[in-house]
Amino acid sequence: MQNIEADYLVIGAGAMFADRIKAAFIAQLRAISDATSPDDLLTRLGDAGALLRLDPDVRPTMYRCATVQPTALA
């Protein structure tokens, strides 16, 4: 089972996060609207920066939503 994670640097409260949250939400809606399959959706969300892959060579088989800092995956 391969997991993908959400970037927690985009998610936060307050005015300083407003533009990032808005841009991320629009990117997610666009990915959902344009996707032709669940696999395509996960690819599009990854390409939009909405999801981080733990291993780019492994296709995800399920969606789990955790927030992480990209440096934690390094």
Structure description:
There is one protein chain. This protein is an alpha+beta fold. It has one domain (15-72). The chain is built from 2 helices and 3 strands; from the N terminus they run E-H-H-E-E. The chain has helices at residues 15-34, 38-47, and strands spanning 4-7, 52-53, 67-68. Strands 2-1-3 form a 3-stranded mixed sheet, with no helix packed on it. The longest helix has 20 residues, at 15-34. The radius of gyration is 12 Å and the shape is flat. The model is unreliable at 1-5 (pLDDT under 50).
**Structural class, from helix and strand content?**
alpha+beta
Distance between the termini: 20 Å
Secondary structure tally, helices? 2
SSE string: EHHEE
Q: Tell me the domain tally.
A: 1
Secondary structure: helix percent: 40-55%
Strand order of the largest sheet: 2-1-3
Overall geometric form? flat
**Rg from C-alpha positions?**
12 Å
Share of residues in strands? 5-15%
How many strands?
Answer: 3
Largest sheet: 3 strands, mixed
What's the rounded overall pLDDT mean? 78
Uncertain runs: 1-5
